[in-house]
Amino acid sequence: MGKLDGKVAIVTGAAQGIGAAYAKALAEEGAKVAIVDILDGTKTMERIASEVAGAELAAFECDISDEKATLALVDDVLGKFGSLHVLINNAALFGTLKPQPFDEIDIDLWDKVQSVNVRGMLLMCRAAMKAFQPQKYGKIVNVGSDTILKGVPFMLHYVTSKGGVYAMTRCLAKELGAYNISINTLAPGLTMSEAVLGWGPEGDHDKNLVIQSRALKREQLPDDLIGACVFLSSPESDFMTGQYVAVNGGDCFS
């Protein structure tokens, strides 16, 4: 028996990378999973279906920075699966961002990062309330970053957005508790996703610096995050809300 039997989950940013790992892990625990991405997630859905016997999955394309699109998405998920219990707010701009001094960041790029990484998470939380509030139950996992604890230079657009995610989680925990909805932040360290691996040799220096700063001196893989993701999605964490859970090999401590 899985920890999420009978539950329905949305995972955003799930067409590849860490999001795909979250989606597979929830399916392995018995959840019906909506694979959501601005990209086509059909191949990821098919791969997970081939690896997880009996998995019930569906792929949906959605721009989470578009309010109407997020509302339509939740309607589509409810139409497909009949209910919704878990939201993994994972979609974010990161891997394609280049380090830049703060006064050289194009303001349109700044706005785009905040639009996806902060506004998008807010809109997904709001859309999920259509299911969560009437049933007086819901689990939200906002995927943050340990960079907010470290003050990473030349990535102000990204780090600021993840600081907003942490603040959002804490505020919403106070608002949503009345509906028996828990919301927590899961904060990965630098993880070897497809996007990070795509940095190529020029990114090796930064990767090695992170590894050397960790208590556990190795690369972080997507699978290192799935235990915490499942825990925060399952009834095991029902009395836990507003918390910041860093999974980063001891790079920094919350």
Number of helices: 9
Kindly report the spatial arrangement of strands forming the biggest sheet.
Answer: 3-2-1-4-5-6-7
* Structural class label: alpha/beta
Q: Give the terminus-to-terminus CA distance.
A: 33 Å
Any idea what the shape is? globular
Uncertain segments are none
Q: Biggest β-sheet, characterized?
A: 7 strands, parallel
Sheet-strand content, in percent, reads 5-15%
> What average pLDDT do the residues reach?
95
Structure description:
The protein has nine helices and seven strands. It has 254 residues and is α/β, with parallel strands linked by helices. The protein has one domain: NAD(P)-binding Rossmann-like Domain (Rossmann fold). A seven-stranded parallel sheet has the order 3-2-1-4-5-6-7, sandwiched between helices. Strand 1 (8-12), helix 1 and strand 2 (32-37) form a beta-alpha-beta unit. Helix 1 (17-28) crosses helix 9 (226-233). The longest helix has 29 residues, at 107-135. The chain is globular.
Task: Summarize the entry for a quick read.
By secondary structure, the protein is of the alpha/beta class. The chain is built from nine helices and seven strands. 44% of the residues lie in helices and 15% in strands.
